Amino acid sequence: MTNPSPAQINLKYLQQLDQQDPLAKKRDEFILPENTVYLDGNSLGAMPKVAAERSQHVLSQQWSQDLIKSWNSHGWIDLPAKVGEKIAQLTGAAAGQVICCDSTSVNLFKVLSSAMLLQQANNAERTVVLSQAGNFPTDLYMVEGLASLLGKQNCSLKLIDDSDNDLALEQAIADPELAAMTAVLMLTQVDFRSGRLLNMHRLTALAQAKGIIVIWDLAHSAGALPIALDACNVDFAVGCGYKYFNGGPGAPAFIYAAQRHHHKLLQPLTGWMGHKSPFTFDKHYQKAQGIEQFLTGTPAIISMSALDAALDVFNDVDMTLLRQKSLQLSNCFHQLVQQHECLQSLQLLTPANEAERGSQLAYQHEDAYALCQALIKQGVIADFRAPNILRLGFTPLYLRFIDMWTSVEVLADIVRSKEYIKAEYKLKHKVT
Ligand SMILES: *Cc1c(COP(=O)(O)O)cnc(C)c1O
After folding, report:
1. Atom number, ligand 1, closest to the C-alpha of residue 253
2. Which atom of ligand 1 is nearest to the CA of 240?
3. Could you report the per-residue pLDDT of 243-252, keeping only the tens digit for each?
4. What is the CA(221)–ligand 1 centre distance, in A?
5. Across the strands, what pairs with 31?
6. Which terminus in the chain has less CB density within 10 A, N or C?
7. pLDDT at position 6
């Protein structure tokens, strides 16, 4: 819980919060453009200085000078496991259960298949993957792809509309007929549109009590709030390297698989890097015993190195403090919105309750796209999610409380002056 703020907040109050902020100094560790408030770290994290330095070093020393020797001399071959361990520490996982590789989508395919095969091995007649209707599309597409491979009779997707609260999901799990058919519950911890945060501990326990395997997508939660994968007894999880972990565009993602499953798992993307001994060049695949079994091909060393360095920014960060600041930033932002008469047309979609929200705010507005484009033009970078959502991410490592003031002032200006009505802001870009 955060401390309540005064009835009206002003710039001076926000300046005081910045002065008292134990995380304020972290901002110096990032390179940020001038005259910009970056409220999109939930889509692409800002660049840590150490990540830039490391990338340079990988190019100018490792690749160019040490060439292939670097696989050993610079530990390239161990990078997926090394980065995995750093992510494990930030997600409440004991050693040996997290590995860095591929994209979130590909990793979902691997854990989904593994979970389906585990159920099959238990002779369970379970064929349903249960998920949220509003889940990020790629998550649902990966299930569709798997279903087309396994056949509809062996794998089908059932979607639950959970847009208001966890109750609909809990009811689905409690439904004896549905639960008996369900192989996997696949949930995204923080909804990418609304920013709603699910109760990982409770939902995992409820599903497992019915024999369901649980997969969590941490795309909008890893690096944004404390996560306790082991304590919640999660089966599998995946997440992104380029959002709150600041690993850079297209940074590799990660997989968590609970130790208790390792010996009996089979994942279908059986590439040589997941072999127990890649350099014996066996004719047949024999999986590695540990979390390495989730590797497929050669790791993307340049981007994985940038992520490796970026994760060090978290070394001295207390995730409880980070969470507190994240909530406080979004509380201030929303309070400032409420203090402006002209912003009453913005409808908050994110739950106001702190326990039910991640590190973003989503507002519905019929001209959300144009508002977003006008904001970006004025140096406040947010994003738009169809059909009508203005989405703002709050990244406590490099945002200041005064940035909340600046961004809401700019937003109010755009609305008051009707600047956003200009035709130029209606032009749809390929990436929104
Ligand atoms: C961002 C995001 C992804 C991205 O997947 P990629 O394979 O990295 O493109 C997946 N799932 C969720 C829930 C996301 O928010």
Report:
1. 8
2. 8
3. 999 999 999 9
4. 12
5. 47
6. N
7. 85
Is residue 323 among the annotated active site residues? no
Nearest of 226, 317, 327 to residue 3 by alpha carbon: 327
Mean pLDDT of the region 72-87? 98
Which of 108, 131, 136 to mutate to test ligand 1, by most ligand atoms within 8 A of the CB atom?
A: 136
Pocket of ligand 1 (CB under 6 A): 103-105, 136, 138-139, 188, 192, 217, 219-220, 240, 253
Q: Is 285 a catalytic residue?
A: no
pLDDT of 319 higher than 80: yes
**CATH-assigned architecture of domain 55-314:** 3-Layer(aba) Sandwich (3.40)
Active site annotation includes 276: no
The end-to-end CA distance of the chain, in Å, is 33
Residue 284, classified by CB atoms within 10 Å of its CB into exposed (0-12), middle (13-18) or buried (19+), is: exposed
Does 398 qualify as catalytic in the annotation? no
Alpha-carbon distance of 395 to 331, in angstroms, equals: 13
- The CATH architecture to which 11-31+318-426 belongs is Alpha-Beta Complex (3.90)
Catalytic (active site) residue 242:
yes
Delimit the domains of the chain by residue range: 11-31+318-426, 55-314
289 strand-pairing partners: none
Global pTM exceeds 0.90: yes
The most distant pair of C-alpha atoms in the chain lies apart, rounded to whole Å, by: 70
pLDDT for the residue 1: 57
Percent with pLDDT over 90 in the chain: 94
Residue nearest to atom 4 of ligand 1 (CA): 104
CA–CA separation, 311 and 173 (whole Å) = 36
CA distance 268 to 294: 9
pLDDT tens digits for 166-202?
A: 899 999 999 999 999 999 999 999 999 999 999 999 9
What is the 141 CA–ligand 1 centroid distance (Å)?
11
